[in-house]
Amino acid sequence: MNDAAPLAGLRVIELSSYIASPLGGMTLAQLGADVIRVDQLGGGPDLGRWPLAPSGRSLYWAGLNKGKRSVTADLRSPAGRELVAALITTAGIVLTNAAPRPGLTYDDLRERRPDLVYARLLGHRDGRTAVDYTVNASLGFPAITGPEDHDGPVNHALPAWDVACGLYLAVGLLAAERHRLVTGHGQRLEVALHDVALATAGNLGYLAEAQLCATPRPRLGNHVFGDFGRDFATADGRRVMVLVLTTRHWRDLVAASGLAEVMAALERALGADFLREADRYTYRETLGGVLSPWFAGRTVASLDGALGSVLWAEYRDFGELVQDGTLRDSPLMGELAQPGIGPHLAPGPPLVFGGHQLPPRPAPELGQHTDEVLGELLSMSTTEVARLRAQGVVGE
Amino acid sequence: MNDAAPLAGLRVIELSSYIASPLGGMTLAQLGADVIRVDQLGGGPDLGRWPLAPSGRSLYWAGLNKGKRSVTADLRSPAGRELVAALITTAGIVLTNAAPRPGLTYDDLRERRPDLVYARLLGHRDGRTAVDYTVNASLGFPAITGPEDHDGPVNHALPAWDVACGLYLAVGLLAAERHRLVTGHGQRLEVALHDVALATAGNLGYLAEAQLCATPRPRLGNHVFGDFGRDFATADGRRVMVLVLTTRHWRDLVAASGLAEVMAALERALGADFLREADRYTYRETLGGVLSPWFAGRTVASLDGALGSVLWAEYRDFGELVQDGTLRDSPLMGELAQPGIGPHLAPGPPLVFGGHQLPPRPAPELGQHTDEVLGELLSMSTTEVARLRAQGVVGE
């Protein structure tokens, strides 16, 4: 077993689409698990999801299925479902966001494989559908996102709930499989997208704050809640995010800007102590107003090394990341020759074991491993697979 | 071993603060692991982080450390560090976002415990600091978040990178521990917040799009990229998010709104086919304009059941979640008697094993388990712990 691939030996059958469930499977595949994504003949509903490459192929699908194997079968036919059930029985682990078809429910599968680990993603726990955008609308974040003077909700661009949910699925599946390693018992795991978002809002204190505190949290624009942090314009027409979380950060910011006298006078005038995070937050507009001219008089380059321990970064857009070397110079990124799309820089796993960065592996072509997987897991001969193909049970 | 707590038997020493690393530990604690957070005497830098309860205690700290045990020690003294090293040696797993102090580096600890699993969170991989807000600024998302007519970056409110990073830490730690269960070998795991964000941008196709496509993705306001989705105002002064991802969703939206003739005429006039997601996205302003009056003439309540398979949800704020029963009625949430804060509804784990929702468990009081843990893990008598306390090596 290779130290750099800690999940070698783990095998997962994935029946999934869109972001969360495929990301959960890919996260395991990137750590060495054999993850076999099974799709309906012709592909799932996410096969053509935007963004598209110039070739017309989905960059989204390719990005979320890297390093998996792909099998296609007719899940609408009893023979296709029997085949998938046999694969799951052999592999012993299934990851899915699909409504269970006949023969593929947890109870059906557990009868064939008593120690099955079955991980299922739901929208709402009661089975009602939900997606990242609807969950996000339901849970309050759009009401506190966006410019302070904006009226109405502001959606996030990042599908953060899908990402969190995919990672929770990977955590849960590994926890269940560990339990099986130790006790021999499998089990059913369910995760609802809505629950993941609600749990996160609770874990971060948003829900308790709404229950216990008289004043609701306002929409803060680019200000950071509870301390001093905001964006500033610089002399070269750029913007930087600047953030203070400790007294050391604050002292360094005051020293760097040469505004110690002004800050001391302000503290006397306001009866404030800017070594306290609460006072930095309360007087954020004042502090920002005092600091703005200092940033406006400096270029981003001149800030480099000038701010001590202060947390700061320049805002960049995705095009700039390609131009400025962020992608090229990152050890996370590797050149990936993705069939149907062409070479580009793609991320390997952000989990680095023993200092070894694993490179990105291409996503499969749809159905690419059908023959290989049926041969390997079910000992089917090429003749048997060819017969199933002629019957329309498995794909090209 | 209880089926509902799959990680029973796993023990983790956590040296951490803020969001990502504590969330990683809490995720394991919620699944039955014994997670012991060790803090400097008096608490870490996150002990008073906002939001605060009316009592002045941090809801953030309480929310992110539920179900752990708490030990305090003087990490600045050799005796305190020796104690923590002894705890880690016994437990065999450490999770940290702290810079390693003398005696607590990976190499130091591995000498004492050759099969150690050591999981460390970094800002940047090269050791430079980074936090959610600076990583977010660096990576392009603020440039495409917010109202279409807004100029300048818009930060997210949710610290999405911290959340993702905490979950990646939990995944990586479980993967490393599985590897140890199977092979007997421990290892060092590192995860950088910046890498997690960059990997996510890559996995979702944003980076490949910027490299391969001529047109950069625009700021889309509340529109969904690549299909038809946006927010609408309703007759009762509310807003709803409405989203179409499949032809079935589209057909149901057209049928519900009674606009089939208009849509067919539009398709002829524009040479478009709204069964295609690309055409729905291209003509999103037109489609939104046509559908707006229909939504504006209806209350949110009247939409319930009227939209068929269409994905939609009403926007709510955190205060409304408390009022409208979302928290009270959710099986995820349970009444938590949190010392120092008082009873409130808090989330249990969103990972549900065997259909059993585990309830939330309170966060510890700072240092609450010092005596208990030193007795249990290091077989120290109360007299010995009292002596260490008198010497200022461990906390109250």
TrEMBL record, chains A, B:
The keyword Transferase applies. It holds the Pfam family CoA_transf_3. It comes from the Bacteria. Keywords: Transferase. InterPro entries: CoA-transferase_III, CoA-Trfase_fam_III. GO terms for molecular function: transferase activity. The keyword S-adenosyl-L-methionine does not apply. This is CoA transferase.
